[in-house]
């Protein structure tokens, strides 16, 4: 990740392209620029030298190419404390694209719930960090009622160490409850590092599972294909293309653009044949592209051959 000024940024993009790398994500605010990129290891020195010559900082980011949801039981001040924002920021510094959200009816130990729409939206992301509170019996009850409905890899963050929640989430980090101030102390920053580490571990398991049956085409290749599409180029939303481990999110309306996206060709095949292209459940705000595995594409090819 390059973090610095926007001056001479075009040189950086050209060098990444020259060495056979790809820009995963770029975010500009006024004259400040953050660029997440993937480059060959042997050319890392060249890119780092240019970044330092541009006056910026460069660091390795293990969560690059992922989109993570940081969720609280509600958007009220009782449940949306400062730690949620700090967690999202720390994950962002490790290369992830993060989204903060709250449930509509997550309040109360006995009344908290998650509906199908909310769980489906959370499952659109590579992983989910769910922040709960300071009462052990409340955390344990809510974990059973809420987290069991989420299929995405989930890290539970809470105050006390809960019991009996192992089957509802992939990892637990305790010692971070509700508080009305930022996490500035050394011990608090260590907890943020621990949360980031657990997310890296959980996504590492997902990466290994994907590598056992790799996607037919890399998400970065689909991203490069879509970058030249007019509505994407004119999109004013931050990061119009966000990569996932098994695909990407294109922040353009589904109804108006899915036919054009499905007809784009990659390796001589329509994108609609090698990807599952669906609308996001968030008010048709974006298109979700899940890349099929090689074995799935081969199986579908064999079925078409038999019918022919």
The N- and C-terminal alpha carbons lie at a distance of: 49 Å
Helix percentage range: 25-40%
| Nearest-integer average pLDDT | 90
How many E strands?
15
Query: Would you tell me the structural class of the helices and strands?
Result: alpha/beta
**N-to-C order of helices and strands:** EHEEHEEHEHEHEEHHHEEHEEHEEH
Rg over CA atoms, rounded to whole Å, is 21 Å
Beta-strand fraction estimate: 15-25%
Strand neighbour order, sheet with most strands? 6-5-7-8-9
Largest sheet: 5 strands, parallel
Regions with little confidence, pLDDT below 50 for 5+ residues: none
* Number of helical segments with 4 or more residues: 11
Sum up the overall morphology in one term: globular
Structure in words:
It contains 11 helices and 15 strands. It is of the alpha/beta class. It has a 5-stranded parallel beta sheet with strand order 6-5-7-8-9, covered by helices on one side. Strands 2-3-1-4 form a 4-stranded antiparallel beta sheet. Helix 1 packs antiparallel against helix 2 (44-53).
